[in-house]
Amino acid sequence: MNGMDRYFRLHENGTSVGTEALAGSTTFLTMAYIIFLQPAILSGLLFGMNTGMDFGAVMVATCVSAAVATAFMGLYANYPIAQAPGMGENFFFVFSVIPAAASMSVVEAGITTAWQVALGVVFVSGVLFLLLSLVGLRALMVDAISPNMKNGIAAGIGLFIALIGMRNATLILPDPATAVKLNVHIASPDILLFFAGLCITAGLQARRVRGAVFWGILVITMLSILARLGLNHAPAFVREHELVTKSMLMTQFEVMHSVVSRPPSVAPTFMKMSVLHALTLKMAPFIVIFLFMDVFDTIGTLVGVCEQAGFVKDNRIPRVRQAMVSDAVGTVIGAGMGTSTVTSFVESTTGVEYGGRTGLTSVVTALLFLLALFFSPVVKMVGSYAAITAPALVIVGAMMIRSAVRIDWKDYSEAIPAFLTLIGIPFCYSIGDGLALGFISYPVIKLLSGRGREVKPTAYVIGVVLIAYFVLVRNV
Predict the structure, then answer these.
(1) 17, 55, 70, 166: which could form a disulfide with 366 (CB 3.0–4.6 Å)?
(2) How many CA within 13 A on the CB side of residue 366?
(3) Which residues, other chains included, contact 346 with Cβ-Cβ below 8 Å and sequence gap of 6+?
(4) How far is CA 116 from CA 27, 57, 93, 175, 337, in A?
(5) Helix/strand/coil (H, E, C) string of 64-87?
(6) Global confidence as pTM
(7) Using one digit for the tens of pLDDT, what is the confidence trace for 361-380?
(8) Rounded to whole angstroms, how far apart are CA atoms 84 and 59?
(9) ∠48-62-166 over CA atoms, to 5°?
(10) In the chain, which stretches have pLDDT less than 70?
(11) CA distance 39 to 65
């Protein structure tokens, strides 16, 4: 125990093995959905199409790459940040990279498949991430962000994950006229369970019960099981009631029939990437896009988690280089296993809110990803039903928004770029795009206000590169 305390510096960070273990479990539960959503996306099952990627192999690749990358983050960087294949990157992989690769002559000739070329693109971008991290360029980018921008990023991520939670629970629905709207079926089982979980977790949080988020997840899991069993045995007129049939999630939620299952084989995707065919002019723009998506998603998550945990000192994040290297290694490993870009997950904030402060939290999360391979029925039941984990995301979002009070709202040259970042992250539904709004506007506003010398040279470079990226690459 003393050795573990010394390695992770538990006492120095005011935490304990028990706190770190429960924090890691909480983080895992809030991001366990990726275990089943990722293979459904990459295989095309979610969209009624077939990309050629094996569902079971992608599930194993997701668990193993998440476990290795998260453990590396914990052991090397000593941060409570979990990693897994990123949402956003996986959709880009399926709907942009695979179709582009499919038009290549090597694919048409049957020499290789489109998804193998796409994995090669991810692998090459991961190697570039790693090189940038090793030479310290990504660390310079983080240090170039002003304190106000850091607080804007943390608050923006808070709004973003709260929006994800409400949308996952179907409380907020997409609408072609107004972009989003409130689900009018408030009394549906899904939304009632979501509100029950939200109120229970908030009540525990208000009472300052340690592990409020974790206990909230456990309670709402039990309520969900009871609700599902109740519907299964309810009279036909109850099961056919409009509020039940309109329920988008409860009708798909099934109580597990077994606890343990055998993991599928990863062989269909393991080391199947085609690096040679990815290194072509046609695929170069996609490598650049993956590069930018991962760099800025990681920076945003790292800043948000570190702000929430109180790691930022004198506007500097300790061990930022190690954290960046960990993220890059995750992407390289993920491509080799057979999955899209592995990146830091914003759901890590749930574990930090519980009290996770060291890499031991990440190690616990990593072990649970490996265990999930054998206990997939349990994980699938919890992770696939958003009403269980959505309340945790909303509660953590509420905790993170408090960073907005630390923004200097009287200094418009600082406040406006921070505000653009804060609203840009949820409105763009992307951490990377939200950061881009702030990074581009910050040096411009500083220059126009006559205070250009306050901006670090790296920030100017980032702004120019981002403008070129959106004009020359992203717009293609």
Answers:
(1) 70
(2) 22
(3) 157, 160, 161, 300, 301, 304, 305, 431
(4) 31, 14, 11, 36, 12
(5) HHHHHHHHHHHHHHCCCCCEEECC
(6) 0.74
(7) 999 999 999 999 988 777 76
(8) 11
(9) 65
(10) 1, 46, 138-139, 210-211, 231-252, 256, 380, 383-384, 473-476
(11) 13
